[in-house]
Amino acid sequence: MCCKLYDVPAVPKKAGAWCGHFGMGRGCLIYDSRPDLCREFLCLWMQDPGLPEGWKPETSKMVATSSPQTGFVHIRCDPASPTVWRRNPYYDFIKNWSRQLLERRSHLLVFVGEQAHLILPDQDVPLGRMSPDTNFTVTRSFAGGRVSYEVKIEA
Ligand code: SF4
Hints:
Layout: H1 2-5, E1 22-23, E2 27-28, H2 36-40, H3 44-47, H4 57-60, E3 62-66, E4 73-77, H5 90-103, E5 108-112, E6 115-120, E7 123-129, E8 135-143, E9 146-154
Parallel strand pairs: 4-5
Antiparallel strand pairs: 1-2, 3-4, 5-6, 6-7, 8-9
The site of iron/sulfur cluster has 11 residues, from loops.
């Protein structure tokens, strides 16, 4: 999946299209000379033993990473399966994951192409096309015995 979902300028390839060096069922056909970006890339499924087997990207059609800039979790979906994140068991896991991240003042974002959703325990907020300049704030409030969240997007 990472050979499809990400830009790799050194190849070059664009996000959303299979790399020309990828062989279905065979993997990278230039493995020994693959670009540094590919060599250094590690998704969270490879790093985090807490992610269930079903999150293996070739099964889930999603790749989860931790943003080096923010530490937020980014889940990128295969554009051929754009609604996979809304299906269980993934959706319940994603909601629970977002709840745990919020406790650490972090967030979970789901991307389908360039369109992002911010996942909160009580809502999924469409952020539209995310750019490095897109900022958002999340305010948590407690009223009537329940927690709610307000999101403000600043483009
Ligand atoms: S060069 Fe190899 S590892 Fe890198 S994206 Fe292409 S197929 Fe994948």
